[in-house]
Specification:
Distance between the termini: 27 Å
CATH superfamily of one domain: P-loop containing nucleotide triphosphate hydrolases
Radius of gyration: 18 Å
CATH architecture of one domain: 3-Layer(aba) Sandwich
Oligomer: single chain
Structural class: alpha/beta
Helix content: 25-40%
CATH class of one domain: Alpha Beta
Bound molecules: adenosine-5'-diphosphate, magnesium ion
C-alpha cells in the first residue's frame, strides 16, 4: 500500500529525513516511534506533500506520489490526521461530520453517519456540542472519524494518543485497530511506544531522521533492551502484557 525508498526530505534547504526506506502492506497497522524531534511528523508531512523532497520515491497504492499537491491526496485515498488543528472547533460535532460527507447522496450520507456513530459511539452523544468544548479524547475521536469518512485506503495519524487519559488512550487504539480490521491501512506516529506496541503489527524506530530499527510489534515487545536503547523508555512486564 505504501512503499518508500531512499527518501531524503526536509524544509527548504534543511534536511531532516535521511535515506528512509519503509514498506507498509495493505491492511497493516504500522507505527512510527521515536523521541521528540526525530522527524516523525516530518515523515507524515512528507507523505502528504507538505515538505521538500530532495530525493527518493514514495509509492502509494502503486502510484508515485512524491511532489504531488496536498489537496489531491484525499482524492487518491490518503487521509492525514494531524496532531493539532484537526477539527473545526467553532462548529458542532454533527456539523464537522456533515462537512466530511459533502459529495455523498443523502442516502449515502445517512448510511455513512450511522456507521460512523457505531464506530465512534462517543460522537453520537456529543452531536450537538461545539467541537471546541470536547475533551481531548473526544476531539481526537472526532478527528479520526473525519479522516475515516473520506473512505481512505491509508490513514496517517500524528500522535493520536498525545495528552489523553489512560482510558482514552486505550479507546483510541481500540478504535484504530477496529478501523484496520475493516481493511484500512494505518501509519500511526507515536511517542508512547509502550501503548502502541500492544496494538500495532509492525513498528519503525526513528532517530535523528533515520530508521534506526524495525520489527514486528511482538519482536519489539520481546526485545525490551533494544526498544529501551533506541527510545530511552523502559518497558515493564505490565506494559508488555497483551491488551
Ligand atoms: N516547519 C519546519 N521548519 C523547519 N524545521 C522544522 C519544521 N518542523 C519541524 N522542524 C524540525 O524538524 C525536526 C524534526 O521535527 P518533527 O518531525 O516535528 O519531529 P517529531 O515529530 O519526531 O517530534 C526538528 O529538528 C524540528 O525542529
Ligand atoms: Mg511530531
Amino acid at each position: 500500500m505504501l512503499s518508500i525508498t531512499d527518501l531524503t526530505a526536509g524544509y527548504g534547504k534543511l534536511t531532516i529525513l535521511h535515506d528512509i526506506a519503509l514498506t507498509v502492506p495493505a491492511g497493516q497497522f504500522a507505527a512510527i516511534l521515536g523521541p521528540n524531534g526525530s522527524g516523525k511528523s516530518t515523515l507524515l508531512k512528507t507523505l502528504v506533500g507538505l515538505t521538500t523532497v530532495e530525493r527518493g520515491t514514495i509509492r502509494f497504492d502503486g502510484q508515485p506520489i512524491a511532489g504531488r499537491r496536498t489537496e489531491t491526496m484525499r482524492g487518491l485515498g490518503l487521509a492525514y490526521v494531524p496532531q493539532r488543528e484537526n477539527v473545526f472547533k467553532s462548529m458542532t460535532v454533527r456539523e464537522n461530520l456533515l462537512l466530511a460527507l459533502r459529495g455523498l447522496s443523502r442516502q449515502e450520507g445517512v448510511a455513512a453517519l450511522d456507521e460512523c456513530y457505531s464506530l465512534f459511539p462517543v460522537l453520537k452523544d456529543r452531536r450537538p456540542q461545539c467541537a471546541g468544548s470536547l475533551s481531548g479524547g473526544e476531539r481526537q475521536m472526532l478527528a479520526i472519524a473525519l479522516g475515516w469518512l473520506a473512505q481512505p485506503k491509508l490513514m496517517l495519524l500524528d500522535e493520536p494518543s498525545a495528552g489523553l487519559s489512560p482510558l482514552f488512550v486505550i479507546e483510541v487504539f481500540r478504535t484504530l485497530r477496529a478501523l484496520c480490521d475493516t481493511g484500512i491501512t494505518l501509519v500511526v506516529v507515536e511517542q508512547n511506544a509502550r501503548s502502541v506496541l500492544r496494538w500495532c503489527d509492525y513498528a519503525y524506530l526513528l532517530r535523528e531522521g533515520q530508521i534506526a530499527f524495525q520489527g514486528t510489534a511482538a519482536e519489539l515487545l520481546a526485545d525490551e533492551e533494544t526498544v529501551k536503547s533506541y527510545l530511552g523508555v523502559k518497558m515493564t512486564r505490565k506494559d508488555a502484557a497483551p491488551a
